[in-house]
Amino acid sequence: MHLAVDVSRIRYVSIIRLEGGESILSLPYATMTVDPDLIAGFVTAVIIFAKTPIRTIRKAAYDILIEVGKQVLILLVVDPVPDETPYRNQLKEILKKFETRYEESLSDFDGDIRLFREFCFSILVHFPYHQIDHDLVPLKRKGEQIPYRVGEVDEKMEEFEDFINGKRSLGEIVNRIALTDGEVMAVASALAKFKWIHFKKPLTNKDVLVRLECDPMVIERLKAQYGKPVDDLIRCFDGSQEIQEITQTLPYDTSAIWFLINLLVDTGCLGLAGLQPLG
């Protein structure tokens, strides 16, 4: 479903109530220079007052794709894409699910938008924060509060976390768990974004690692056990050099260094460049 969609281009998704014009659900993907609420207000005004249906608004740095339903509209802020069709197909599905699920709540809307926040997960099934290689192995770490981790979403995330053992790849979890492939990708990308998991794969000399924000107590414990090499490795891995370039410059036994590198990856203090949790 996601093959034709490049989620790295997505910046923001918002669902707006047509009658009141307010955003009742928003899901940011990337930092924007323009306030998303201003975009939502602008789009709503254009839709309400336009005499002809408007489906795309093109700005200098991004496009706004719009799909209008009976009670709400959904907008997608995205970097310019060569073909809008796959994005629109997903928007239409999301819109249909939302209006079906919340038809009664939308008809008797009382201003409380908290009941809609759980639907963020349904958006992520269509547009995950990022696509993750199924060969990668998720590892647990301490993260930040996930605003939509409530109800069924919390249950799905707990179910996924129960399958994480530091050895199973994402693909193996997909084959074992009751969740769909799309739900697994939604959960994994959300947990990664909010720093509850990071990923590893069998490391090679050519891999590039970066420092991650791990528990300081973990680092102190490793330093107490293994001494100065831990500090040296954390200092050297800044995402600019391959592992082999760093190991060649350090005055330590190669096998011992590789042991520490894998240990630092497993504990969440180092991670593959490009795979660190998204902010």
CATH class of the largest domain: Alpha Beta
Structural class, please?
Answer: alpha+beta
State the helix count: 11
Give me the CATH fold name of the largest domain: Beta-Lactamase
Q: What share of the residues lie within helices?
A: 40-55%
**How many individual β-strands?**
10
Major sheet, described briefly?
A: 5 strands, antiparallel
CATH architecture of the largest domain: 2-Layer Sandwich
User: Distance N terminus to C terminus?
Assistant: 25 Å
Task: Indicate the overall shape.
Answer: elongated
Q: Which regions have little confidence, pLDDT < 50, spanning 5+ residues?
A: none
The neighbouring-strand order within the major sheet is: 2-1-5-4-3
From the alpha-carbon coordinates, what is the Rg to the nearest angstrom? 22 Å
H/E order of the elements?
A: EEHEEEHHHEHHHEEHHEHHE
Strand content: 15-25%
Q: How many independent structural domains?
A: 3
Mean pLDDT across the residues is 90
